[in-house]
Amino acid sequence: MAVDYTTHDGVAVITLNNPPVNGLGLSTRAGIVEGIERAQNDPAIKAIVLTGAGKAFSGGADITEFNTPKATQEPTLATVIKTVESSAKPVVAAIHSVAMGGGLELALGAHYRIAAPGAQIALPEVKLGILPGAGGTQRLPRAIGLEAALNMIVSGAPVPSEKLADSGLFDAVVDGDLAAAALAFARKVGAQQGPHPKVRDRKIEHPNAAGFIQFARNSVAAIAKNFPAPLKCIDAVEAGVQNGFDKGLAFERECFIALVQTPESRALRHAFFGERAASKIPDVPGDTPVRDIKQVAVIGAGTMGGGIAMNFINAGIPVTLLETKQEALERGLATIRKNYEATVRKGKLKPEALEERMALITPTLSYDDLKNADLIVEAVFEELGVKDQVFRRLDEVAKPGAILASNTSTLDVDKIAAFTKRPQDVVGMHFFSPANVMKLLEVVRGKETAKDVLATVMKLAKKIKKTAVVSGVCDGFIGNRMIEQYIRQALFMLEEGALPAQVDKAIEKFGFAMGPFRMSDLAGNDIGWAIRKRRYQEHPDMHYSKIADRLCEMGRFGQKTGGGWYDYKAGDRTAYPSPVVDDMIGAFSKETNAQRRKIGDEEIVERLVFALVNEGAKILEEGIASKASDIDMVYLTGYGFPLYRGGPMLYADTVGLYNVERAIRRYASRPNGDAWRLARSIAELAAQGRGFNG
């Protein structure tokens, strides 16, 4: 049963019991209505307590029912709240742990509310591109005031219950036994003559409501220009202020229905579910036993190694940090400390916490000190010969059952595993720079990687607050394999008539955090050069523009050399268009007999994004990624793809694969068209009128 019904000396207790967060699925909603009606029909019952079992009052909608008929089947949440609110016998909501979304809206429908301290109170719907659809925009301002309510609704951020103790939301915030306090409170109000108070009957008090709403609208418009939901939240609250509760409620519902249909909401919901789906591996059951990770070792104290170490010590896991030379070790430790000091200055970390974290690092120059590590992550130079030396040494010193992970971004994990006598214990853990900031972790599964190793790493990723996505073994895995095709198109467009600033501006207007040329300058153009040199040997038949090689031959490696595709000034990371580079591009086009032409922004965006989509489709066909949403999560969390577009594969679905296929065929017939080999699945899905996501 999703709802339990018990009686205690004249009080009926309706307990939501739908783990893990008492989601308001159909059976839960029906159980609440049945419980209220049962209590109404029992003369011995004088009051009703509504609460939640386990770790939540209610986390809101049951996400397992999203996009199914059950989500909108009666009794809907609005019906449930109306039933609670219209009860002749007083309903007391006893709130603990979590009351979010529909859970908070349900509590607002009760006549009284008492709460335990520390309960997280929120209306987070805006994070899914929608707004509270069961009265949240109408009741919360009446409960806690216009300003506080608008801040909560527009941000979606949780607020601890004790911070709302003096608002009109709670009748009491009680320490100790919440259940006993709720029963006592219910008996008291049950003895009182009705009718009992309803939040809907309160007035929204504010000295200048219209002025504050306009201020809020101006503030939100500046920061949420690509997301319609925050402004719609303000519109719904305003409707309640101007037109009263019932008209405000009707307008809220209209806004909710409209927002659910927007591509932005679809994108945000896709990202929400995609993050949860990424942790599920088709052939690795959820109950697979995991290895205990109490000690971690990191090899390499450079930028990547130091950042990787910080992830573990942030989670309270001790790290042994290995370097080959004392000065490199000291430099790495100093950088870690400097990073934490910057966080302290921002007020996000207490000085004593800094020292606690630094104390979790054991620096060493000896591989012998890694013998007790449960997980060892190497972050050494990206060259197979170097990895060979490291993994053969690890095979000698690591204890049996230790997980040996490589932070490689492109190299063959199966070859790395073969350097050991324990390939089942080897896995790729590809962190993204800066590793202590970026959310993405590509978990690369070798052909012999054990299932419990995968399960362990995926669980550990959650602990260190990463979004982990599993990739099979191929050159570049998911993210870098796709970005190579994106960069190829960017370079071809320089040959054909575009300039770096135009390409970057077009894709940044589309929503990318950074265009391909600013990104290359930041990462270092010499890194891409090294990869291309390897490509020329391994894939001599693949056509690359040599224009980026010409730039590197000029010594322009990016920000670190003061010049790359752009010019940079000392202490200034602003990318200034470079006349020298523009002249070089023009001269290169002449040398190669490329006909320069005007390239529009629409073409720039299509070629860059559809290059990602086409390669992503091939990755799915080969089983390198198990689902399209995994690819989208890689690009949303690691490559700056705009969140409101949902990732390259969802964006392709939004545009329509019929249109994607036509565009790719069109570009394949033009200069440099040999870079376009249409993925089989795009044509097949387009013919069926389907998308990557169903």
UniProtKB/TrEMBL annotation:
Q: Which Pfam families match?
A: 3HCDH, 3HCDH_N, ECH_1
The 3-hydroxyacyl-CoA dehydrogenase C-terminal domain covers: 476-568, 604-685
Origin superkingdom? Bacteria
Q: Which InterPro entries match?
A: 3-OHacyl-CoA_DH_NAD-bd (IPR006176), 3HC_DH_C (IPR006108), 6-PGluconate_DH-like_C_sf (IPR008927), ClpP/crotonase-like_dom_sf (IPR029045), Enoyl-CoA_hydra/iso (IPR001753), NAD(P)-bd_dom_sf (IPR036291)
Task: Identify the CDD domains for this entry.
Answer: crotonase-like
Q: Does the keyword Transferase apply?
A: no
Instruction: Indicate where this protein resides in the cell.
Output: Peroxisome
Name the Gene Ontology biological process terms. Answer: fatty acid beta-oxidation
Q: Which UniProt keywords apply?
A: Fatty acid metabolism, Isomerase, Lipid degradation, Lipid metabolism, Lyase, Multifunctional enzyme, NAD, Oxidoreductase, Peroxisome
Q: In which pathway does it act?
A: Lipid metabolism; fatty acid beta-oxidation
Ranges of residues in domain 3-hydroxyacyl-CoA dehydrogenase NAD binding: 295-471
List the catalysed reactions. a (3S)-3-hydroxyacyl-CoA + NAD(+) = a 3-oxoacyl-CoA + NADH + H(+)
Grouped into one coarse class, the protein's main location is: other
The GO terms describing molecular function are: (3S)-3-hydroxyacyl-CoA dehydrogenase (NAD+) activity; enoyl-CoA hydratase activity; isomerase activity; NAD+ binding
Keyword flag NAD? yes
Q: What is this protein called?
A: 3-hydroxyacyl-CoA dehydrogenase
Q: Which organism is it from?
A: Paraburkholderia ribeironis
